[in-house]
Amino acid sequence: MAYVAVKGGERAIDAAHAWLAAERRGDPAVPALTTAQIAEQLGRAVDRVMAEGSLYDRELAALAIQQAQGDLIEAAFLLRAYRTTLPRFAYGRPVDTAAMLAIRRVSAIFKDLPGGQVLGPTYDYTHRLLDFALPDAPAAPAEVDAEPQPLAPAFGILGQEGLVEPDEAKSDDAPGDLTRDPLAFPAARDVRLQALARGDEGFLLALGYLTQRGYGNNHPFVGELRVGEASVEIEPPELGFAIDIGDVVLTECQMVNQFTGSRTAPPQFTRGYGLCFGHSERRVMGMALVDRAMRGAELGEPAEAPAQDVEFVLSHCDNVEATGFVEHLKLPHYVDFQSELETVRRMRADAEGTSK
Amino acid sequence: MSGYNFAYLDEQTKRMIRRAILKAVAIPGHQIPFGSREMPLPYGWGTGGIQVTASILGPPDVLKVIDQGADDTTNAVSIRRFFARTAGVATTTRTVDATIIQTRHRIPETPLHEGQILVYQVPLPEPMARLEPSRAETTRMHGLQEYGLMHVKLYEDIARYGRVANSYDFPVMVNGRYLMSPSPIPAFDNPKLHMSPALQLFGAGREKRIYAVPPYTAVRSLDFDDHPFRAGRAPGICALCGADDSYLDEVVTDDQGTRMFVCSDTDYCNERAAAAAIQGNAA
Amino acid sequence: MSITHPGFPDPVQDSQACFRAVLDAMARPGQVHTVTALDPPPMLDAATAAVLLTLADADTPIWLDQAAMAARDWITFHCGAPIAAATAATLALALEPVRLDAFPAGTDDAPELSATIILQVAALGRGAAFELSGPGLAAPAILEVDGLPAGFVAEWAANHALFPRGVDVILCAGDRIAALPRTVQIRQAWFGKA
């Protein structure tokens, strides 16, 4: 009987997991991947998983990617579920990105600037021609003759003239943390930036793109984009001074936007900000565009586009939440469907009754 | 399971959720924001219910988990296993034996008793979410007890279809004050919410809300004097146990579209069938 | 120093058991529950200490009345709850009569941002009788309390009238607890033989 066939869910789940493990491994004649290979050779995937997983650990991110068969959202989910169980020993001090050892720094608003335009490892000027020789490329590519270096931020120059809005006043308040406290609206900029930094890259990209096409009326320029290693410091209360606990690779984007001024502020350039774990320029640029768009209310701009609606953006930018809810439609819904079925049948019966 | 705390959550998280649950009980039907954690199961698959269950569960408890009324649906199996692994508690399929029942989409047919806790998995806790997507706006409406939007929606349904078109997740008023989503249970189950001897807790993980209906609390399905609330079920009797009062699933049995109806509540069905077999043997 | 008094022998299971007692007490107003025995610090009854260990932590600013200050070090050590002014308290611990309206009652949009008052009384299950009704109760129930402050019934009526705003109270005496959520209506039934 069909009804009996749905029983045995437990065995079905075990069988599904066994099948998944076999499929993940693939043809056993092909050598198995190692997490070291993933961490070293799929760096951008690892970076994305660390950013969206909100956990800086290349080895664990590589493991998550392997376990998820390269499904990066699934991998970010694995990292997050692990992260949430970790005790918190200390809170880091704000990272000084101006002091980072940069491997790349470009500014679109200056032809040249102190320290220069540093291209670093970029795909920007690659011709997108499949490199059929890559699988057989020599084991060790040519040595790179460049040292990461500290570079003064590009903004100092404009800031001196008062043409660009200054940094917000430093605050001693602990920043919000949406992984501990539920979002409440209107959300302050600290929480907004946290949500974007771990938000879905595709969502940030699409919303940023929308603002460029008139849905949000942004006029953006890349003031500066930098990638490099920044040191993380904590200040244990029993020590009373900060200690360096390690370095993280970060990507940062300062986007400048035209602003005509308001009754209280003279015309000047405003800024949108993006920062993330690892090397992901697309992510921080999208983030900076959306951050600026969400500041519309604060700057007295009409908020008409989705990217300007804080609640809209923050409620939908998280891909672990989004994929869970979209994919939950796979779960049985037959009880609800049955109730709809009965309602539609009764409505049709009513309609036939009245049409006679 | 080693490496994790009892029932997976750390104690500080449990305390935070427990405080939210107490406020939820003190303000029946009001959604309490809570610091929902990222769970090892996906959002939308019961993370809210799981966090509530994990925060209340103890070694003496006997846990039952159902999805669509059935103990053997894959997600119910998966969640039951999660707690068997992380908390080592006893589990059951029998409604009468359970102290905690975690459910998705159904209220058991067997009447609940005092001392039991029913934990609902909730996808969208805001009853007006489909009418007003802004959380800031609906929070204000609840504060002002301003529920005109929902009444207009129901009235428009009646004008258009001659009946309210909601057949599940049918909105209710709790204790005469808060408009509440009963979660996507069929409207057939709504009357069981009213004056239940059991404590009813609702957890929405992705939306980060907890709410509650204490025992013996008035829960009224929204209706109008000239269009009283009507709970629907498929007309028919269960092909397995003969019940004519239970909520039925429609099961297609062959390629010709032959159907049969069976109880959605598998425990209710099994208990009835077993009782009938005993009577049959005695006769 | 009162911190030498221990907390729960088994923090995970004892706090779970105590929470279930508090939950059931809140869900069924007036029903008296017994909680896990423990060796409480000076001035606190076992039930009071158990409820604190169950609910208080670094995220719950707590107000202490003068008498409760004797347990301050114990609370700081075992719960980590910061001491707060009445108007900023999430939890309040009162060993002596206290005004309910001194504490946050929440807002219309967020009535949950209200204080929970842990009120230690002389006895539960004997003393003055109060008739309770409201959600959680199939029929009006009697709760006997020895040691509720004079005028409590009138103050409670004012608190109840704020609904959905209002404070909630957990009564503790010896190893027993009972709770009064803001939804409950209280009527003095008769005076018991305290």
What does this entry look like structurally?
- The complex is a heterotrimer of chains A (356), B (283) and C (194).
- Chain A is α+β, with helices and mostly antiparallel strands and 356 residues long.
- In chain A, a hairpin with an 8-residue loop joins β3 and β4 (243-257).
- Chain A is 40% helix and 13% strand.
- Chain A has helices at 2-5, 9-25, 35-41, 43-53, 58-67, 72-83, 155-161, 189-197, 201-212, 281-294, 310-316, 319-327, 334-355; strands at 101-106, 149-150, 220-234, 243-257, 270-277.
- Chain B has 7 helices and 12 strands.
- Chain B has a 7-stranded mixed β-sheet with strand order 1-9-8-5-4-2-3. Chain B has a 3-stranded antiparallel β-sheet with strand order 7-6-10. In chain B, strands 11-12 form a two-stranded antiparallel ribbon.
- In chain B, β2 (62-67), α3 (74-87) and β3 form a beta-alpha-beta unit.
- The longest helix of chain B has 17 residues, at 266-282.
- The model of chain B has no long low-confidence stretch (mean pLDDT 94).
- Chain C has 4 helices and 9 strands, in the order αβαβαββββαβββ.
- Chain C has helices spanning 11-27, 46-55, 72-78, 152-161, and strands at residues 33-34, 62-64, 91-94, 116-120, 123-133, 141-146, 168-173, 176-180, 185-190.
- In chain C, strands 1-8-7-4-3-2 form a 6-stranded mixed β-sheet. A 3-stranded antiparallel β-sheet of chain C has the order 6-5-9, with helices on one face.
- Chains in contact: A-B, B-C.
- At the A-B interface, α2, α6, α12 and α13 of A face α3 and β11 of B.
In short:
The complex is a heterotrimer of chains A (356), B (283) and C (194). With 356 residues, chain A is α+β, with helices and mostly antiparallel strands.
Task: List strands and helices in order, with pairings.
The complex is a heterotrimer of chains A (356), B (283) and C (194).
Chain A (H helix, E strand, L loop, with lengths): L1 H4 L3 H17 L9 H7 L1 H11 L4 H10 L4 H12 L17 E6 L42 E2 L4 H7 L27 H9 L3 H12 L7 E15 L8 E15 L12 E8 L3 H14 L15 H7 L2 H9 L6 H22 L1
Helix pairs in contact in A: 3-5, 4-5, 4-6, 5-6, 8-10, 9-10
Chain B lengths: L10 H16 L5 E2 L13 H10 L5 E6 L6 H14 L2 E2 L8 E5 L12 E5 L13 H10 L3 H14 L10 E3 L3 E3 L9 H4 L5 E6 L4 E5 L5 E3 L26 E5 L6 E5 L2 H17 L1
Parallel strand pairs in B: 2-3, 2-4, 4-5, 5-8
Antiparallel strand pairs in B: 1-9, 6-7, 6-10, 8-9, 11-12
Helix pairs in contact in B: 1-2
Chain C lengths: L10 H17 L5 E2 L11 H10 L6 E3 L7 H7 L12 E4 L21 E5 L2 E11 L7 E6 L5 H10 L6 E6 L2 E5 L4 E6 L4
Parallel strand pairs in C: 2-3, 3-4, 4-7
Antiparallel strand pairs in C: 1-8, 5-6, 5-9, 7-8
Helix pairs in contact in C: 1-2
